[in-house]
Design brief:
alpha/beta, Helicase, Ruva Protein, domain 3, Dna Topoisomerase Vi A Subunit, Chain: A, domain 2, four-stranded parallel beta sheet, 8 helices, 43% helix, binds zinc ion
Length: 201
């Protein structure tokens, strides 16, 4: 980890950068040098943006989305449907669904999925608030948009059980052939799931 002839300030910068997803020590060193080389156009604006974000951005107390307001812009939007809540693992997943523009209801960010391996238990996730929201009179559907991983599916089953007494319909995203995908290139699991969730043309 230690770079030859780098002082403690540079070491600290590199150590912190290396904690970012996708950046190992080598890319962190490159990023640090890039920042130092572009001090006024990149490094100071980035430092300001980081400080600003750390001060102002908070988790929405209703859905768990990140925004400068609580409730967040999605929860506060008057033109979205209150009847459906889409459950996602992370804020990144919420953003991905918003980019796709396919859903006009509300969201709920779980903050992860249940995992025996990583020691994530139901009480570690934002589940109690979800059950509370699902029990509200105008909510009729909970869409589980969790990742198609073993943990994602375990969590989906757990949530379906938890939500049953709320009297809502619980749905999940279809698994199958990606748009523009060719059958020959799909893995067996995806192909089998696509076959199971076939629909009339
Ligand atoms: Zn919100």
């Amino acid at each position: 980890m230690r770079s030859a002839s780098a002082g403690p300030e540079i070491e600290r910068l590199i150590t912190l950068l290396a904690k970012l997803p996708g950046l190992g020590p080598r890319s962190a060193r490159r990023a640090a040098l890039q920042l130092l080389g572009k001090r006024d156009v990149l490094m100071r604006p980035l430092a300001d943006a980081l400080a600003d974000a750390a001060d102002k951005i908070q988790a929405c107390s209703t859905c768990g989305n990140l925004d400068v307001t609580d409730p967040c812009a999605v929860c506060a939007a008057p033109n979205r449907q209150d009847g459906a809540i889409c459950v996602v693992e992370t804020v990144g997943d919420l953003w991905a669904l918003e980019r796709a523009g396919a859903f006009k209801g509300r969201y709920h960010v779980l903050g992860g999925v249940l995992s025996a391996l990583d020691g994530v238990r139901p009480e570690d996730l934002n589940i109690a608030r979800l059950v509370e929201r699902a029990s509200e009179a105008d909510v009729t559907e909970i869409v589980l948009a969790l990742n198609a991983t073993v943990d994602g599916q375990t969590t989906a089953h757990y949530l379906a059980d938890k939500l049953e007494p709320c009297g809502v319909s619980v749905t999940s995203l279809a698994r199958g052939v990606p748009v523009g995908g060719e059958l020959d290139y799909l893995d067996d699991g995806t192909l089998a799931a696509a076959f199971r969730s076939r629909s009339s043309v």
